[in-house]
Amino acid sequence: MHITMVKKRMRDGSDCRKCGEVTEHLRQRGFWDRIDAVVWAQEDDPTSPGVVLGERLGVETAPFFVVRDDDGETVYTSVLRLIQDRFDQADASTVEEALDVDPDDIGGI
C-alpha cells in the first residue's frame, strides 16, 4: 500500500490551515510515518502536481489522500475515514468527526 497526501500551499508558502491541522493529527496519533509521499497543490499554480492530481481524480479541496494498493486507487478526503479504513482503527469519536468537517472549505484547491 502506498499513501500520498495532497496538501495545499498558500501564496505565502505556508500550508493551508486544514492541511496543517491534518498533518498534526496524523503526527499526534502516530500515523505520519505511514504517509509515503506529499504532493503540493500550489494556490497560484494550476499546473502544480497536486492541482493536476486533484483535477484527474475529481477532488476540489485539500488535503486529500490517494491510496494505491492491489485493488487500485482509492481517494480519501477525510483523514478520519483514512485512519478507520486503512490503519485498522476503531470508529472515530463524534468530536473527531465534527472536527473533520471544515466550515472554511471554500474555494477548493
Question: What is the overall number of helices?
Answer: 4
Assign the CATH class.
Alpha Beta
Name the shape in a single word. Answer: globular
Structurally, how many domains make up the residues? 1
Low-pLDDT parts are none
Helix content: 25-40%
| Proportion of residues in extended strands | 15-25%
Kindly report the spatial arrangement of strands forming the biggest sheet.
2-1-3-4
The end-to-end span amounts to 25 Å
What is the CATH topology classification name? Glutaredoxin
Radius of gyration: 13 Å
Number of strands: 4
Short précis:
The protein is α+β, with helices and mostly antiparallel strands. Helices cover 33% and strands 23% of the residues.
Describe the model:
The protein starts with a strand and ends in a 9-residue tail after the last helix. 33% of the residues lie in helices and 23% in strands. The longest helix has 12 residues, at 17-28. Helix 1 links the parallel strand 1 (2-9) and strand 2. By secondary structure, it is of the alpha+beta class. The model has no long low-confidence stretch (mean pLDDT 87). Strands 2-1-3-4 form a four-stranded mixed β-sheet. The protein has a single domain (2-96), classed as Glutaredoxin (3-Layer(aba) Sandwich), CATH 3.40.30.
